[in-house]
Write a structure and sequence with these properties.
Blueprint (H helix, E strand, L loop, with lengths): L10 E5 L2 H15 L4 E6 L15 H9 L3 H8 L2 E3 L1 E5 L7 E5 L13 H9 L11 H7 L14 E3 L2 H14 L3 E4 L2 E6 L5 E6 L4 E3 L2 E4 L6 H6 L4 E3 L8 E7 L9 E6 L2 E7 L4 E7 L6 H9 L11 E4 L3 E3 L3 E2 L2 E3 L5 E2 L7 H14 L8 H27 L7 H8 L4 H13 L12 H10 L16 H20 L4 H8 L4
Parallel strand pairs: 1-2, 1-11, 2-7, 4-14, 11-20
Antiparallel strand pairs: 3-6, 4-5, 8-9, 9-10, 12-18, 13-16, 13-17, 14-15, 15-16, 18-21, 19-20
Helix pairs in contact: 1-6, 1-9
Length: 496
């Protein structure tokens, strides 16, 4: 390969550390360290947000790309396993549902499994959709195993601060150069590109491509390059969070708990050594002191640290890549942590960047394509998270009444109407959340289809009933053989 074609990109500078910065640096040096230098600038004086502790299954693929051994990663981050999310009080107060990973049931030629389930349900047989999910049944039984047939879909609960430290160690061993310092000024060229970062201690860090991982501040993409921001506050009322860690009082469950309250929702995430807790809320309806009290009154175990507040504005950067700067992580935008997508969006962005790395100076056509793909990804995610708020039977507070009445994007409205009428879900390959995820949340939030595909009736009734019953029995038998979640961790990756 002629390395001259990469003459325009010799050094990539990552501004900011934390999870986003070190994920980006580690991916770049692991896959492109042979042709570019990777430098990361971070300040010990600037704390990272670092409260996000739940992930989705795409992290496994990211770790395969970086060649990170699973057991080493788990031990380094006090991680546990995650089979999905239990949503409590979302559709109605007192009702729960489970959003599991993996697949539910099996598809047939005319559509997805929900049509079989709808045939069964609309005939008067009341089996839960989750009865056909191995992940959900394992979660309910507090069991876990890494299996092949069927293969359980899983993700992790982890300590984000330890994860950044773990990635830093690996990144530096592979050639990333870390520079300690506070960025005092971003120097631009006459054409408006970033030339260098000037640090408070006087150092000048030059580069060809700059990655903004400076969090909500957006020091490069926003303050220096003035990429606009698309505000989604009309869709998402929650704009603050308060987080606290507590001591462990019971065995860790293999799922995240998401508990809806009158003006927001609470997360509960078990690690091997502690539990992460937080309340995401709307400052319009809840003061900081009220939020703090609500959280502390709904936790288990003694607090390990003082509650910490984080403010955010839901939305996205209008140009995630502008000039020779790419925003990755919170600097690119943020919706909220409801479906544990923040770490995924970092990995997705850095993989997209590596696939589209400029063959010389960045070309506007390629920058536009990168921004188009990023926009589609975020808008799809916006719709999926918005579904949890819009499709609710709750009207017990101003917060939930607003959510019921608010206008939503046509893309989400159309999807809900089609599903309510026919049980169909039309899915695009660029979407993060699968048909199975949409099904579980739509049903869990109370969107019940009126009809199902007539092809689901092609199996005679007796044969159909036996098929559905055997499927449930096979899952029950599969789960019954698993060890408990705690037992599996002890055997496979305990930190003790």
């Amino acid at each position: 390969m002629d390395n001259n074609q990469h003459a325009g990109i010799k050094r990539i500078v990552v501004a900011g550390g934390g999870t986003a910065g070190w994920m980006t640096a580690c991916a770049l040096v692991s896959q492109m360290g042979h042709c570019v230098d990777v430098v990361l600038v971070e300040s010990a004086n600037i704390p990272t947000v670092g409260v996000g502790e739940a992930t989705i299954p795409t992290m496994q693929t990211f770790h395969l790309l970086l060649q990170l051994p699973e057991q080493d990663f788990i031990r380094a981050t006090n991680a546990t396993f995650k089979l999905g999310i239990q949503f409590e009080n979302w559709g109605e107060v007192g009702k729960d549902y489970f959003h599991s990973f993996g697949d539910t049931g099996h598809e047939f030629w005319a559509g997805q499994f929900q049509h079989y389930w709808l045939r069964e349900t609309l005939s008067g047989k009341h089996t839960a959709y989750a009865d056909y999910s191995a992940e959900a049944q394992a979660a309910f039984a507090n069991k876990f195993a890494i299996t092949k047939n069927p293969r359980l879909g899983y993700a992790y609960h982890l300590d984000a601060g330890l994860y950044a430290q773990y990635l830093r160690k690996i990144s530096e061993s592979r050639g990333v150069r870390r520079i300690e310092g506070d960025i005092n000024h971003v120097k631009l060229s006459p054409a408006g590109d970033i030339e260098s970062l000037l640090l408070e201690q006087g150092d000048e860090i030059k580069g060809d491509l700059f990655i903004d991982c400076t969090g909500f501040r957006g020091l490069l993409i926003n303050k220096a390059l003035h990429s606009g921001y698309e505000d989604w506050s009309d869709y998402f009322l929650c704009d603050r969070a308060v987080a606290v860690q507590t001591e462990t009082v019971q065995d860790p469950v293999p799922y995240t708990r998401s508990i809806a309250h009158e003006s927001g929702w609470q997360w509960r995430i078990p690690l091997q050594n502690r539990v992460g807790n937080g309340l995401v809320f709307s400052s319009k309806y809840l003061s900081d002191e009220q939020a703090r009290s609500l959280l502390l009154n709904n936790i288990e175990g003694e607090c390990i640290n003082e509650p910490r507040f984080i403010g955010f504005k839901p939305g996205r950067r209008k140009e995630i890549w502008r000039k020779n700067c790419v925003a990755i992580g919170l600097s690119s935008g943020f919706i909220e942590p409801l479906e544990s997508t923040s770490i995924h969006l970092v990995s997705s962005a850095v993989i997209r960047l590596m696939r589209m790395i400029p063959m010389g100076s960045p070309k506007q056509l390629e920058i536009d394509e990168f921004n188009r793909q990023s926009r589609m990804e975020l808008e799809g995610l916006r719709d999926f998270i918005l579904l949890h708020y819009k499709a609710t039977g709750r009207n017990d507070s101003e917060f939930w009444r607003y959510c019921q009445a608010m206008d939503i994007p046509d893309s989400l409205r159309t999807r809900m109407e089609i599903y309510r009428d026919s049980g169909r879900i039309y899915w695009d390959s660029h979407e993060l959340f699968t048909v199975n995820s949409w099904n579980q949340v739509l049903l869990g939030q109370g969107v019940m289809p009126k009809h199902y595909h007539p092809a689901a009736d092609h199996i005679p009734e007796a044969e159909f009933s036996a098929m559905m019953q055997n499927y449930r029995k096979s899952i029950a038998g599969f789960v019954d053989k698993m060890p408990s979640h705690k037992q599996f961790i002890s055997q496979y990756c305990s930190t003790e």
